[in-house]
Design a protein that fits this description.
- By secondary structure, the protein is an alpha/beta fold.
- It has one domain (3-189): Spore Coat Polysaccharide Biosynthesis Protein SpsA, Chain A, CATH 3.90.550.
- The protein has ten helices and eight strands.
- It has an eight-stranded mixed β-sheet, sandwiched between helices.
- Helix 1 links the parallel strand 1 (3-9) and strand 2.
- The termini are far apart.
């Protein structure tokens, strides 16, 4: 099985090289850029990644990932955030999970790169939410069979909640698993606006999505706090 890794990015030159190094076992790596101005394109190319541009309209991670999927040729697709690091041996883990014909997609458990104890609590909550409630976010490195991803409609180019929405639709085609092995992600988005504030905002957006608030409106609520 050939696994394509797709990395949506916007001005992530400072972290992209470490992220791409963690994806070394991929069949191919595609960086889907949303209009960066910080030199990330050159750094990604030096790491051997294929770089595509998705500059039309406002930056949208969902649109970037869909464009990356369109440009890929692997049997399976893994979507990796630009500030996240895959665990050693990740490719074998993905292939082993998808060796079960009943499994169409999955994700890793989450580890946040910080020594602060509060992040251990957040990790526990995130991993409970994913494994027990089935609510998987993109920072957990979602992967899927190519056919299932295309059949479910991909990320639908949504401005927010594209990850949770996509996983929900993937479940119509088979099981979605959460691996015990952990992908490491940066703590910066929590630390930027405060851990408590960021966590409450994330849960609020999730709740509003569940009751039917549109992704476009959620985008405004989420980024109004940035």
């Amino acid at each position: 099985m050939k696994v394509s890794v797709i990395v949506p990015a916007l001005n992530e030159a400072g972290v992209i090289e470490e992220t791409l190094k963690s994806a070394v076992d991929a069949f191919e790596v595609i960086v889907a850029d949303g209009g960066s101005l910080d030199g990330i394109l050159q750094r990604a190319a030096r790491c051997g990644a294929k770089v595509i541009s998705t500059r039309a309209g406002r930056p949208s991670r969902g649109r970037q990932m869909d464009a990356g999927a369109d440009a890929s040729s692997g049997d399976a697709l893994l979507f990796l955030h630009a500030d996240s690091i895959l665990p050693e041996g990740w490719a074998g883990m993905v292939k082993a999970a998808l060796a079960d014909d009943g499994v169409v997609a999955g994700a890793f458990s989450l580890s946040i790169v910080s020594d602060r104890r509060i992040f251990r609590v957040i990790e526990a909550a995130v991993n409970f939410r994913a494994s027990r409630l089935g609510l998987i976010y993109g920072d957990q490195a979602i992967f899927a069979r190519r056919e299932a991803f295309l059949n479910c409609g991909g990320f639908n180019k949504l401005p927010l909640m594209e990850d949770v929405d996509c996983v929900k639709r993937l479940r119509k085609f088979g099981r979605v698993v959460v691996l015990k092995d952990r992908v490491k992600t940066s703590a910066r988005r929590w630390e930027k606006n405060g851990v408590a504030r960021s966590t409450l905002r994330n849960w609020l957006v999730l709740l509003l999505w569940f009751i039917g608030v549109s992704p476009a409106r959620l985008y405004g609520i989420y980024y109004a706090q940035e």
